[in-house]
Design brief:
This protein has 342 residues and is of the alpha/beta class. It has helices at residues 28-32, 39-52, 67-75, 104-118, 137-150, 163-176, 199-206, 237-240, 249-266, 270-279, 294-301, 310-320, 328-331; strands at 3-5, 12-14, 16-19, 56-58, 84-89, 123-128, 153-159, 181-187, 209-213, 284-289. It contains 13 helices and ten strands. The protein has an eight-stranded parallel beta barrel, surrounded by six helices. A two-stranded antiparallel sheet has the order 1-2.
Length: 342
Amino acid sequence: MEYRLLGGSGLKVPVLSFGAGTFGGATSFFKAWGATADIAEASRIVDICMEAGVNLFDTADVYSDGQSEEVLGKALEGRRDQALISTKSAFRLGSGPNDAGSSRYHLRRSLEGSLRRLGTDYVDIYHLHGFDALTPIDEVQDTLNTFVREGKVRYIACSNFSGWHLMKSLAVADRYGWTRFVAHQVCYSLVSREYEWELMPLALDQNVGALVWSPLGWGRLTGKLRRGQGVPAVSRLHDTSAYGPQVEEELLYKVVDALDVVAAETGKTVPQVALNWLLRRPTVSSLIIGARNEEQLRQNLGALGWTLTADQIAALDKASATPPAYPYWHQRQYTERNPPPV
């Protein structure tokens, strides 16, 4: 296993981490993911991860209404000190007026609830699951900084922020000498490259590591989707596609065609090639992989230990390229002043 520093921190994380959204299954959305509340099955998945050096486990308070955290906590009993736990808050969990967002009130209650469900007295990485435009950023960052000072959180991060959300949050933290975000959990794949437009250059400039969610394009790059065949009868896309990145069919099949070629050249699978491509991108610290079972997990682990050639990377770059939105298309015309991220 390769380990990389998480952004500007001294924390080393594995390049593949495990997304525990497949633990729980308390809601229809997560049942469609194939989530399970079986502790023995979850423990077996954790065993395989640890054996492979995958010691970072990502969850959130809203995953299966807290059940994901509970199952993960039980699966890690007796080996908490060997693992890194990442969890998140900000989405609605409850029906009250303060049961969502990033207010001091909600974040405090959310963190205490996560610690209780996980069966631990600290989390290694605590994320804001999304931006709260109603709560003052000073209040948010002060609260997160307090969590770190109390020892209940080791590092803080965010997820699904726009460029100005992230930059303003960093600026407020810097103004008061508070703990900074060291990571940004982002949607990024061969069929969703918008992260490269602004967030990647910002991450390079501010030393913020990317923790990539949905690295297989919300299940579209598993090798099961083929031009002219439609979505297979058994696929979580039937129930969850509206909640993930929207991908035009022609782009998807253009990318899949290119992946098929590279997979044949390398003797690897389509998802292994797609994950390997992401690991070569600037700012990427870790890819959060999910797995419903041992077979899927072991296949994803096969993305490591080999490297795509420059020509193969170029072919995948070309197949997955899309016209950026304004002002990025304009800026890209002047690479003398706006060179691409490297």
